[in-house]
Amino acid sequence: MRVGKGCGRCRNRHIRCVIPKGATSCTPCSRLNRDCQLDPRFQFKPVRHVYQKSNGAPARYDLQWDQGQIWVDVTQPVTFVLEAASGSPGEEVFIPPEPVTPAPLPLSSLLLDETPEQYPEIYHGEANSRVVEHRSQITTSSPFTTFSEDDAVLSLREASLMRYFIQRLAPWADICDIHCNFSTEVPRRALENPMVLKAILALSSRHDAILANDSDLEASAYHGECLEMLIAALNEAETNCDENMLIAVVILRIYEELENNTDQKFHLLGSNRLVNLVSRSACSGGVAEAVSWQFLRQAIYASVVQYQPLQLDMHNFESSTMFQRSDDAACANAIIYYCARILQLCCDQPGRIVDRDTWVYISDHVAEWNRNKPTTWQPIRYQAPNLAAERPFPELWMISPPSGMIPKGVALGDLTTDQTLSCWNAVLSFRLMSKPCRRREPAADLSQKKTIAEHLVMVIGLSLSNESVENAYFMASHLLHRFGYCLRHKVEQQGAIHFLNRVESHLGWRTSWMMRELEEQWIELAALDTWGL
């Protein structure tokens, strides 16, 4: 092998051939405006013998096959007839054969019931190798190349929105579902049920418009079409309520939640009625059970943020398989259930003293859950906050996404005596929100607010430390809306505002109105100086 230098014209003229770096033509040919016939970069010459030392002396080895070498028959070169404009109709291109395994019949022959006798150039018996000759009138294609744009089930825009839902939005609902029904089963149903399809398109379009700061006219159109079909289906809900209605309503509920400042909770009320109507959906498994647990999380959101009592029949969830499983998703759903029970108990009759036996029952179950929780719910890294270094939130790295979504280890506060119940931040929020019959002392109230602030800081730190778990951002923003006024340090307040800005810019969750309310509350409390800071 030798390296090629120069071009043929310069070599024939016996002149120096200069090729600028990266150029495709030498300087003399470029100056004369002629085609430059550059030699290949590397040239190979045939090797018929080599020299190698043998016993200290050079020996010549001829590269020749032994006369006893056994040879086998090889196929002839494959002949192709070019159909493109770059070649003439009769021009043939010979390509050396490659070893291939026997291939199945062409798809066209399978569809037309053609026999091997009709294509003698394709079939030559088992003893001979296969020779395939492609001619202009015979084309073979794979099953994928038989598709055309007319065969697409969805338009380009609809397909883009469907993929947007699968990649961006469905993981929100699948966070506590090991089967990921919203990413797999729900899109499949959308191809069969237009009501589910319109709900997905409406949600994806609205979220896309929010992030792009664009108009949501398209989303409103999809939403209206879905509502027409949903209303017609609800008229028969008493006798014919299926899972597709549940799917459509829960997706439309997320659509509503994206407008937090004008959330009318229409679909929340509808979902409550449907879930209570289909009483076995929460324990039936599959997509129905996944939808029911998503309903429950949405109801908790409304209770914490919008001060609404839970209207779900919690007995529907008691027979769920979540309480028999030990995986991370089931563990998360179990504590969500106890959280909902406490919220329902506190908000059922505000101001009423909670029955001690009921609290003891919940306390025992939460304590049992805390003892049996998986080891994946322990952080693999923890770094405490440092206000002096302007780092207001701790750093907690979690392995399991469900454990990153729901903060743990938070005291609910007093029962009726000195007993303390360890549970989640969301549960703590509503327990501390409920008004007791007796008036609290200022010192006790101050201590309570500082405790809430500590838990709130922990929740935000957990969210920021596990940014891939987007559901954790939602819980933290909900609790900030409810208890953000308890953050009294300037660094914590600035960190909370930056966090809410991140939620809106990255997730499309409206938080601007939360920031305005929190800033007003902080200014008012600073003027009152109720904490003596």
UniProtKB/TrEMBL annotation:
GO terms for biological process: positive regulation of transcription by RNA polymerase II. Keywords: DNA-binding, Nucleus, Transcription, Transcription regulation. It is found in: Nucleus. Gene3D superfamilies: Zn(2)-C6 fungal-type DNA-binding domain. GO terms for cellular component: nucleus. Its main location: nucleus. Residues 6-36 form the Zn(2)-C6 fungal-type domain. One of its GO terms (molecular function) is zinc ion binding. InterPro entries: Fun_TF, Zn2-C6_fun-type_DNA-bd_sf, Zn2Cys6_DnaBD. This is Zn(2)-C6 fungal-type domain-containing protein. It comes from Penicillium olsonii.
